[in-house]
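C-alpha cells incoming
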C-alpha cells in the first residue's frame, strides 16, 4: 500500500489535534505549534550551513525538543496521548550552551543589529520566530492550561539564539554591528 501525503480532511479549513478534536486552522493552538514548526525548519537551515560541531550538536538536540514541545501544543486538552517528556535539564542545557558561547564573545555593551554575517543573521531571524512562538504560546496559556515549561523553554531558547547569532558572527569573521541611536 502506498502512503499518500494528502488526506483531503483539511479541505474544510479544520485540522485534527492529537487526541482527535478538530479545530479551525487559525486556532491559537494551531498557530502556536505551527510557529514552533517554522522555527524548527529555520533551525534546520542554520544547522545545514554550519560546520561547528558544538553548534550542530546543540541545534540537533534543540530540534528534538521542539518536536516534543510541538506535540504538547498539538494535543487536544485532556488528550490521553502519551507524549515525550520535556525536562528542567532541557532549559539548563540551553543555559550551559549560552554560557559556553559567551566565554568566547566580547562583553555586550550595546544593542546589536543583525547583518554581520549570513549565518548570524539567520540565527537572528530564528530568534524572532522563537519570540513569536513564545507570544502565541503565552496567549494560548491565557486561555487554556499549558505546561509552564513550554514558555520557559521558548524564552531561554530565544536567549540562546541571540547568543548563537553573535557566536556565528564571530566564527565567520564578522564584526558586530552596534546600534548607534540618532539623537539631536
Amino acid at each position: 500500500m502506498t502512503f499518500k501525503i494528502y488526506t483531503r480532511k483539511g479541505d474544510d479549513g479544520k485540522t485534527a489535534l492529537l487526541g482527535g478534536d478538530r479545530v479551525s486552522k487559525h486556532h491559537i493552538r494551531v498557530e502556536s505549534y505551527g510557529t514552533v514548526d517554522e522555527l524548527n525548519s529555520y533551525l534546520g537551515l542554520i544547522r545545514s550551513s554550519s560546520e561547528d560541531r558544538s553548534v550542530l550538536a546543540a541545534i540537533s538536540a534543540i530540534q528534538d525538543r521542539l518536536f516534543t514541545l510541538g506535540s504538547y501544543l498539538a494535543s487536544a486538552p485532556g488528550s490521553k496521548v502519551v507524549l515525550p517528556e520535556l525536562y528542567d535539564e532541557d532549559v539548563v542545557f540551553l543555559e550551559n550552551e549560552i554560557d559556553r558561547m559567551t566565554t568566547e564573545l566580547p562583553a555586550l555593551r550595546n544593542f546589536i543589529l543583525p547583518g554581520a554575517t549570513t549565518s548570524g543573521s539567520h540565527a537572528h531571524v530564528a530568534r524572532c520566530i522563537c519570540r513569536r512562538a513564545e507570544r502565541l504560546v503565552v496567549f494560548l496559556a491565557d486561555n487554556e492550561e499549558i505546561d509552564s515549561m513550554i514558555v520557559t523553554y521558548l524564552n531561554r531558547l530565544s536567549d540562546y539564539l541571540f547568543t548563537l547569532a553573535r557566536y556565528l558572527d564571530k566564527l565567520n569573521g564578522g564584526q558586530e554591528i552596534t546600534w548607534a541611536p540618532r539623537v539631536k
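note: The mean pLDDT is 93.
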